[in-house]
């Protein structure tokens, strides 16, 4: 059961002209880009656990990022990163697990061993899923990406007691995939006139149910911005 949601107004993203926050002052900060799917994973996790007061979201402008972010916060100069207990942690899949296990709020991994292992396996497959779909943009897109979406459809058949990967329990497996499926559904429809849910009823139901989750709603990116971004990045000649 998700924690209560808060109608939150994020600050303007920090850019090269911005002063840094008072770093390592005991405040836990989650550095994100509002349009980054990797950062979105951590933002959803933080929201679902109701950590609005415990973890402060700090948006960064990736197109004009502040020098102090690389120098003083995260040497890899990527988002997301989490400033917590005097250290900084990166990598979205590591971070969603870290936030889930180190902070209060509803757990996003089950106690059931079989379900937990299935979730871990699904989370481990996300890089392969994303690589398959992104690579397809350069070839016969809908044909080459199809097996990746079929993999999700099959995974959603494993537990029949609900619409999520682990059945009735929303989990880190869902968190790991939804930022990318959100983008792929919009982009495949707009650029290739292809509905990724056609012939995949469980995927369609999963997307429908995730879209009802309050922790996810404010993290979504404007569809028009997504289409323009993917056009420029993948279809520019």
TrEMBL record:
<dbReference type="InterPro" id="IPR004045">
    <property type="entry name" value="Glutathione_S-Trfase_N"/>
</dbReference>
<comment type="similarity">
    <text>Belongs to the GST superfamily. Lambda family.</text>
</comment>
<keyword id="KW-0216">Detoxification</keyword>
<dbReference type="InterPro" id="IPR040079">
    <property type="entry name" value="Glutathione_S-Trfase"/>
</dbReference>
<dbReference type="InterPro" id="IPR044629">
    <property type="entry name" value="GSTL1/2/3"/>
</dbReference>
<feature type="domain" description="GST C-terminal">
    <location>
        <begin position="85"/>
        <end position="234"/>
    </location>
</feature>
<dbReference type="GO" id="GO:0005737">
    <property type="term" value="C:cytoplasm"/>
</dbReference>
<keyword id="KW-0560">Oxidoreductase</keyword>
<dbReference type="Pfam" id="PF13410">
    <property type="entry name" value="GST_C_2"/>
</dbReference>
<feature type="domain" description="GST N-terminal">
    <location>
        <begin position="26"/>
        <end position="107"/>
    </location>
</feature>
<dbReference type="GO" id="GO:0045174">
    <property type="term" value="F:glutathione dehydrogenase (ascorbate) activity"/>
</dbReference>
<dbReference type="InterPro" id="IPR005442">
    <property type="entry name" value="GST_omega"/>
</dbReference>
<dbReference type="InterPro" id="IPR010987">
    <property type="entry name" value="Glutathione-S-Trfase_C-like"/>
</dbReference>
<dbReference type="InterPro" id="IPR036249">
    <property type="entry name" value="Thioredoxin-like_sf"/>
</dbReference>
<feature type="region of interest" description="Disordered">
    <location>
        <begin position="1"/>
        <end position="21"/>
    </location>
</feature>
<dbReference type="GO" id="GO:0004364">
    <property type="term" value="F:glutathione transferase activity"/>
</dbReference>
<protein>
    <recommendedName>
        <fullName>glutathione transferase</fullName>
        <ecNumber>2.5.1.18</ecNumber>
    </recommendedName>
</protein>
<dbReference type="Pfam" id="PF13417">
    <property type="entry name" value="GST_N_3"/>
</dbReference>
<dbReference type="InterPro" id="IPR036282">
    <property type="entry name" value="Glutathione-S-Trfase_C_sf"/>
</dbReference>
